[in-house]
Amino acid sequence: MLVITGECFCGALRYEISAPLSRAQACHCSRCRKAFSGASSAFAELSSPESFRWVAGEAQLRQYTSQAGWGIGFCSTCGSTLCGLYQGRVMGVTLGTVNGNPGIEIGEHIFVASKAPWDHIGGSAPQFAEWPPWHNGTPGDAL
């Protein structure tokens, strides 16, 4: 059985995922740059939200909810952003917190029209000015 593990920078928060990740994206919007302190956020959705579980430190998890039930989960000790939440439920993880190979690569860059002027996007993944045309606004589509 496939098990993906991940953790925050200080190791206080650790998780396991027992199903493959899906739909990996890099979001270059100004909100993600601030939330993730980088050029973009790199995240992937859970193919099955039930496959996610915290294995250590869940009491360290803090949540910032920004709009209509959407939020991010981060470690109260080191500040690492670990997951995207919808109405308190983990819907995706930030790829930088995954230990080892997550079994997925960035499949699309979104909100590139608002990327930082110093950001250079490499690779061959498609780029979209905002949401891709197939975006439908369902949980898991954004962190």
TrEMBL record:
PROSITE patterns: CENP_V_GFA. GO terms for molecular function: carbon-sulfur lyase activity; metal ion binding. InterPro entries: CENP-V/GFA, Mss4-like_sf. Gene3D superfamilies: glutathione-dependent formaldehyde- activating enzyme (gfa). The keyword Cytoplasm does not apply. Keywords: Lyase, Metal-binding, Zinc. The keyword Nucleotide-binding does not apply. Residues 4-119 form the CENP-V/GFA domain. Belongs to the Gfa family. This is GFA family protein. It comes from Denitromonas iodatirespirans.
